[in-house]
């Protein structure tokens, strides 16, 4: 499942693909930090709930 996050540096939307954890259909694992595709700024994944893309 894809989730959308806003870059804290430039405000651009970034889409991260979550990996399903175990057999739960509502539990997803995302990287704790990621680089913005636009400005390459380092961002941190906030605590859930996340916005689905």
Write the layout of secondary structure elements.
Layout: E1 2-6, E2 13-17, E3 19-20, E4 28-29, E5 33-35, E6 42-44, E7 51-52
Antiparallel strand pairs: 1-2, 1-7, 3-4, 5-6
Protein name: Rubredoxin
Protein model, in words:
The structure is a single chain. The chain has 53 residues and is an all-beta fold. Helix content is 0%, strand content 42%. The chain has no helices and seven strands. It has strands spanning 2-6, 13-17, 19-20, 28-29, 33-35, 42-44, 51-52. The strands form three sheets. The protein has a three-stranded antiparallel β-sheet with strand order 2-1-7, with no helix packed on it. It has a two-stranded antiparallel ribbon with strand order 3-4. The protein has a two-stranded antiparallel ribbon with strand order 5-6. Strand 3 and strand 4 form a beta hairpin. It is elongated and about 35 Å long. 2% of the residues are buried. This is Rubredoxin. It comes from Streptomyces lusitanus.
What's a quick, concise take on this entry?
This is Rubredoxin. By secondary structure, the protein is mostly beta strands. The protein has no helices and 7 strands.
């Amino acid at each position: 499942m894809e989730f959308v996050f806003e870059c804290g540096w430039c405000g651009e939307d970034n889409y991260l693909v979550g990996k399903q954890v175990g057999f739960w259909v509502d539990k997803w694992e995302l990287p704790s930090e990621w680089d913005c595709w636009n400005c390459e700024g380092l961002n941190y994944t906030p605590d859930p709930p996340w916005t689905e893309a």
